[in-house]
Amino acid sequence: MIKNEKLDLKEFYEIRKEVLQTWPTGQNVSIEEGIKLHRTIPEERRFAWVMKKAREKRQTLLQPRAGVALIEDHIKLLRYLETEGQADLLPTTIDAYTRQNRYEEAEKGIEKSKQAGTSLLNGFPAVNHGVEGCRRVVESVSRPLQVRHGTPDARLLAEITLAAGFTSFEGGGISYNIPYAKRVPVEKSIRDWQYVDRLVGLYEENGIRINREPFGPLTGTLVPPCIAIAIGIIEGLLAIRQGVRSITLGYGQGGNIIQDVAAITALRELAEEYFRQEGFDDFELTTVFHQWMGGFPEDEAKAFSVIALGAIVARFSGAEKVIVKSPHEAMGIPTKEANAQGLRATRQAINMVEDQVIFKPEDLKSEVELIKAEVRSLMHKIYEIGQGDVAAGTVAAFEAGLLDVPFAPSIYNHGKIIPMRDNEGFIRIFNKGNLPLPEEIMAYHRQRLQERAQAEGRAISFEMVTDDIYAISKGKLVGRPK
Amino acid sequence: MQPENLSNREPEFKNMEKDTIILGVIGADCHSVGNKILELFFTAEGFKVVNLGVMVSQQEFINAAIETNAKAILVSSLYGHGEIDCQGFRDLCLEKGLDRILLYVGGNLVVGKTPFEIVEEKFKKMGFDRVFPPDVDLKKAAELLKQDIKARFGSDSHGPRNDDQAGQPEKSSPETDAGTSKARNPKAG
């Protein structure tokens, strides 16, 4: 049975031997060399330091997603986002083969990209490029650099990229499994991420603070805030237990402004509360807001509007970072120009609302309290069935559907809950599946959905869900009938 | 309102033998949202849908088609690797004896914004019968599929007849785009 306990170093090194053998570039990875390299990195290029400053200065930093197959092209792309896009933080988005540990296919993708003269991969195959290749990327940019991916087993990827000088690593045992994989047991991915977090903890013990960021948006599709927040808190607890100190918890824009601001507020306050409750007080907690992760309008003018709303809500929520989309989102991977446009649109919107405060916490109180009550119900049950252990509780919770992510591909996820928007665009839960939410809370959700049904003159139905999923790409937040 | 509710419309087809189609997202792609919607939609359209879900290999598609005597394979790809993942699909079908099967593909099929005509040509050259952009009207795609099945399999096709379709409730199709749906999982963390 898995436990939320610090991974024993001896065991860590035993696992490490195997991990490094899974691809030739793993063979000479050295944590010691990595630590030495990190010591040469100035503060302003360290993710943890920059995030901490952002919290102190109440800034909202901008970060795009980006990654291509070949090293030189990837460097060009990042430099462009730095100069033309004025990104505060830089990514290296990893390709989908690497995310599934399919390095041979990634190798083919590299070769075919060379032949085609353009990237045929949807990201940067960091494992195949190895420490040397990754280091060239790190040395070519002047902003903090983070690995962004979607990898259930990211142990080798973490070893290589951290040794190469990346200062932040996204993901977690739930958020990079349930939405990103089909057949990976939750227990296995949690274990593999305990390894990643232990590795980060090892750097920490040597004075190198690496930032960790669980992936908040999950499937990006009508995810009720309480589910995203509970999972973020769990992954935060798992990371801190392994020695992580700089942690950025995320949340994906749902669409209703009040609900989104309330969600970030609840996330920040509850994470702090649960971390302390497990006995931790030495951590640097920040938040990240993801601009709309669902379907986008194809029309670039309309896409900019979606981007700008995300920017504004990110700012009002007080998140220290916003992950930025591009006007090409509907079509897939953006060009560097489109990516920089997304950054500039975001910057403009944030600058215009930066000094304004329209959402005071007291205005949001009822929504914050609702979300908090929901998260507490989920967390209470998880601790209960884990007999006090959050890792064991999480595994059991997924098995029983007590944690359930809507629209996820994983066979280890129940997929029974049915979320939809209410008449004001709040994401509500129609069918809770096995989620341990109290009856009075569910009654409130259903009441709000009933208001919509009445307004639209139709019964609450699964059609509302599909209407909602495509609504934003068709120009509206709530999927109304024609 | 479980998804099963959509099958309320099914009884009219109950006594007919339905055409089987195979559905799945190819390669290492885990975009699951559109896939779930396609399953509901094509089921409501009267097909017997075998949904293989996400991360399906060419071989898995073909095995399922052979086992179920399917008329068509509907391949989705949202993450940009479609070009690599789909190469040789038609040849492998022929090699395994699937010499008549219809191959459809749809989604965000290549890396980067590319004019759809170029994408379509590329995939037609690979042997796909139809290629769909991400914002395809599903209703139209279903009509094309019925026509294509009739044209290729003729009398041994037993798809729902036209009069049955006319009898469907007006709002039966989720008014979605999405040969493979743009609403999807995040493609990057």
CATH names the topology of the largest domain in chain A as: TIM Barrel
Low-confidence stretches of chain A: none
CATH class of the largest domain in chain A: Alpha Beta
Computed structural class of chain B: alpha/beta
Question: Low-confidence stretches of chain B at least 5 residues in length (pLDDT < 50)?
Answer: 1-15, 159-189
Residue-averaged pLDDT of chain B: 80
Let me know the CATH homologous superfamily of chain B. Cobalamin-binding domain
Largest interface: A-B, 68 and 48 residues
How many domain regions of chain B? 1
> Which percent range describes the beta-strand content of chain A?
5-15%
Strand order of the largest sheet of chain B: 2-1-3-4-5
- Principal-axis shape of chain B: globular
The amount of helix of chain B comes to 25-40%
Radius of gyration of chain A: 21 Å
- Average pLDDT confidence of chain A is 96
Find the count of extended strands of chain A (DSSP E, 2+ residues). Answer: 10
Strand order of the largest sheet of chain A: 1-8-7-6-5-4-3-2
Give the number of helices of chain B: 7
Q: Report the portion of residues of chain B in β strands.
A: 5-15%
Kindly report the oligomeric state of this protein. Answer: heterodimer
Order of helices and strands of chain B: EHEHEHHEHEHH
Protein name (chain A): Glutamate mutase epsilon subunit
EC number (chain A): 5.4.99.1
Catalytic activity (chain A): (2S,3S)-3-methyl-L-aspartate = L-glutamate
Organism (chain A): Candidatus Saccharicenans subterraneus
